[in-house]
């Protein structure tokens, strides 16, 4: 889950999408309706977000986080009815202690052209909710530009899921995210480069089969998680990690809270403040296998499993983005041929220097700073399906 916070400056204007032609419109403050100059359609605009008028930064920084986590926790008892209650007994012939993810047929609107480079980009704002996020769609737009313009990904091989998409099959519901992930790995072969980018809420729930080192499963929260439930790390691993054949590379870029081991990969790179590292074994305690079928899976996540990720304008200057997504793109395009170690260190340094989290205009006491920033700091994490020297292996996506 992103820990979304703002400065205490009231926003001068908003943006809305015309209901007639889809053009993005600039909406003056306090305006409730606006007429499009192109198609003359009148679009209703929801009221200015009350979080734009910050009165109590401490309450804003912690109140909605507790509310959201409580809300997610309240859904855990009903997970079994939403398809997330994996059996604890090993499935015959599957080798990980879980049954395969049920097949979800993807619609014809999904790209039919795969190619050797393809990506799924998912950004969820949870609009009109107290825990609404402001930078997730910006994250997806930036990531798409980066993949296409800088890394040569074909436009037609990128599947985008956001609330702004016109097709109902591209709204980031649980069903659609499941289908998109299955589309991503369908028919993949040696030489293929796959990317899964997610910007949205993440959470944790208790692990009941004893295979998690910290006792918790990490989860992604689809747009309809309240009614359909969350997506467990076990399911993500089964869907996009285990099918990867030899010669295939998957990069998951997960900008969410509690996302350090969201792919359930067997190895987590535990790094110190000054960049020293050791690979930590996160294989299931049962001895079951959670790696690939010969390919390489790498996860770059916004924070450790016990941390929160920030949604902030501190890095970009005036645009809300996920701190992890922004720092990743900034680092990845700054030095072609950089190693994984240099990439992670550059991301961490950018976030530290920006003091992401709660931004306050004016001086604050050291005690208040500790209250505001404790629990909001984040350290991007690297996990992998195989061990390698992070300061020698080039980052190639």
TrEMBL record:
Tell me the ranges covered by the Zinc finger LSD1-type domain, including all copies.
18-42
SUPFAM superfamilies recorded for this chain? Caspase-like
Q: Which Pfam families match?
A: Peptidase_C14 (PF00656), zf-LSD1 (PF06943)
Q: Which GO terms describe its molecular function?
A: cysteine-type endopeptidase activity
For the biological process aspect of GO, one term held by this record is: proteolysis
Peptidase C14 caspase domain boundaries: 117-387
Gene Ontology CC annotation, any one = cytoplasm
Family stated for the protein in its record: Belongs to the peptidase C14B family.
Know the name of this protein?
Metacaspase-1-like
The species this protein was found in? Kingdonia uniflora
């Amino acid at each position: 889950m992103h820990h979304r916070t703002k400065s205490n400056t009231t926003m001068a204007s908003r943006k809305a999408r015309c209901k007639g032609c889809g053009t993005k419109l600039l909406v003056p403050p306090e305006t409730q309706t606006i007429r499009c100059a192109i198609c003359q359609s009148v679009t209703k605009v929801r009221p200015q977000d009350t979080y734009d008028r910050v009165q109590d930064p401490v309450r804003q920084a912690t109140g909605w986080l507790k509310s959201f986590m409580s809300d997610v926790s309240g859904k855990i008892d009903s997970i079994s009815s939403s398809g997330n209650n994996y059996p604890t007994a090993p499935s015959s012939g599957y080798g990980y202690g879980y049954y395969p993810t049920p097949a979800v047929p993807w619609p014809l609107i999904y790209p039919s052209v795969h190619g050797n480079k393809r990506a799924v980009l998912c950004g969820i704002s949870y609009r009109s909710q107290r825990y609404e996020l402001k930078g997730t769609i910006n994250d997806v737009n930036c990531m798409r530009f980066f993949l296409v313009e800088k890394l040569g990904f074909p436009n037609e091989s990128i599947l985008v899921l956001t609330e702004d998409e016109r097709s109902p099959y591209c709204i980031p519901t649980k069903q659609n995210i499941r289908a998109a992930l299955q589309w991503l790995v369908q028919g993949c072969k040696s030489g293929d480069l796959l990317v899964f980018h997610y910007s949205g809420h993440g959470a944790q729930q208790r692990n009941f089969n004893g295979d998690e080192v910290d006792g918790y499963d990490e989860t992604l929260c689809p747009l309809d998680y309240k009614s359909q439930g969350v997506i467990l790390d076990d399911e993500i691993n089964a869907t996009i990690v285990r099918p990867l054949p030899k010669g295939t590379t998957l990069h998951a870029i997960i900008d969410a809270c509690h996302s350090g081991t969201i792919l359930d990969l067997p190895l987590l790179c535990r790094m110190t403040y000054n960049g020293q590292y050791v690979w930590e074994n996160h294989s299931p305690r049962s001895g079951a296998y959670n790696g690939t079928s010969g390919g390489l899976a790498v996860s770059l996540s916004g924070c450790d499993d016990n941390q929160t990720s920030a949604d902030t304008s501190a890095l970009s200057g005036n645009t809300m983005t996920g701190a992890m997504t922004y720092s990743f793109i900034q680092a990845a395009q700054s030095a072609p041929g950089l190693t994984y170690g240099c990439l992670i260190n550059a991301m961490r340094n950018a976030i530290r220097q920006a003091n992401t989290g709660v931004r306050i205009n004016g001086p604050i006491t050291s005690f208040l700073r500790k209250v505001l920033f404790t629990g909001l700091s984040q350290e991007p994490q690297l996990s992998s399906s195989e061990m390698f020297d992070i300061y020698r292996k080039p980052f190639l996506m």
